[in-house]
Amino acid sequence: MKNLKTLRILHTSDWHLGQKLLHRDRKEEHQLALDWLLELIIQEKVDVVIVSGDIFDITNPPNVARKMYYNFLTKLVNSSCRYLVVTGGNHDSPSMLEAPKELLRAFNFWIFGSIPEKREDQLIEITDEQGNLQCVIAAVPFLRDRDLSYGQSMEGGLDRLERIRKGLAHHYQELGQLIEKQFPDSIPIIGTGHLYASGAQASDKQDNIYIGDKENIEVEQFPKVFDYIALGHIHRAQSIGGNDAVRYSGSLIPLSFSETKDEKGVYLVDFNGKKIENIEFKTVPVFRRLKTIQGNLEEIEEKLKKFEAKERSLTPWIEVIVETDAMIPRLDLQLREMVKDMDLELLKIRVQHQYQSLSEQMSMADLDSLEVMDVFKKKCESYGSSPDEMDALEKTFLELMNWMDDKDEQ
Ligand SMILES: [Mn+2]
Fold first, then answer.
1. Which has more confidence, 110 or 159?
2. 50 C-alpha vs ligand 1 centroid, how far in Å?
3. Residues, CB within 5 angstroms of ligand 1 (ion)
4. pTM of the full predicted structure?
C-alpha cells in the first residue's frame, strides 16, 4: 500500500508509437499497452509519470499514433497523476513534440523535445496539493550535437564520440551545480536521459543504438545530487553499474524479434523524503508474441506446432531461421504451406548456411529489418574496406546522417 507521505514516480520510455515491424502495424499492441499503463497509473495512485524519450518511432508519425498519444494524455488529466514529464528521444522530432508544449503546460504536462536555452528551465518543481516542494526533476531529452556546445567550443580536436561524451557529462554537471545552489538537500532530485550509459546491456541485437554503438556516459559521471536517474534508449529494463538508482525502464512492447526474451514493463519508484523507499518493476502483459523459431525444416514444423497450441490474444508473429547446407527449392512456399492452417503469421524467413559469406546471407527480407548503418557497413565490407578505413567511413557517415537529422528539424 502507498503510504500517505510517499511520492510515487512511474518511469517508462521507448514507446515507439507508430512503429511498423516488417510493414506490419503495431497499433493494436500499442493501444493495449497504453490502456494497461493507464490502468496501472490509476490503480497504483501514481503522482508523477516520466517518459524518457522515443515516444514516437519516427519524426513524422502517422496520425493514428499521434491520436493514441493525445488520447492517453487526455485520460491522464483526470487521473491521480499530477505531473507528466515527456522528454524527446533520438527517434522523436523535437519540434513536433513541442508544438503543443504551452497548451499541455496548463495540465502540468511538461514537454522537452530539445533543451531550452536556459539550464534552469530544465528543472521542474514538483509540489504537493498545498504547494510545498516535494521533488525536483531535471528533464534531459536526447542531446544532439548542436546541444552539446561544451565539447565543440572547448576541444576542437576531439572526435565526435569524445565530444558527445564530454558534452553530456558537462551538461549533467551544470544541472547538478544549479540544483545544489537552488534547492535544499532534503528534496529528492530526479534526472532523466536518453543515452547509452556504459555497462548497459542491449537486447541481443537492438536495432537503433546508433551513435557508433558506443557508450556515451559512465554512471559515475552523473552528479551525486541525483537520487534517481530515469533513462531511455536501451530497450531492456535494467539498473546500471551496480547502482539501483540509475535505470532503464526498457521499451513498452518488444520492438523487434531480438527483444522477445526481455520482460517489458515500467518502474514504480517510491520516495519517502529523499529516501527511495521501494522500486518495483511492473510487467506489461504480452499482447502479441513475437517468436523466432530456428532449426532444420522438420524441427521448425515440430516447434511451430508446439508453439501454436497455446492461447494468446493477438495472432503471434513468427520469424523462422532455417538451418541448411543445401539449397531448398521453393522454401518460401513450403513454409507458407506448413503454417497455412496455424493460428500464427510468418513474418520473416531467414536461411542460415554454415559456409556462407555475409553478403550472400543477406536476403531482401533481411534488408528490410536492417538499420541504415548496418547496410552502409555491409556495403563498405563488400568493397573490401579495411577495419581502419571502416572506422573513418563510419564516422563520416554518422556525421552526414546527423547533419540530415538536424536539417529535417529546421
Ligand atoms: Mn528507443
1. 110
2. 15
3. 14, 54
4. 0.84
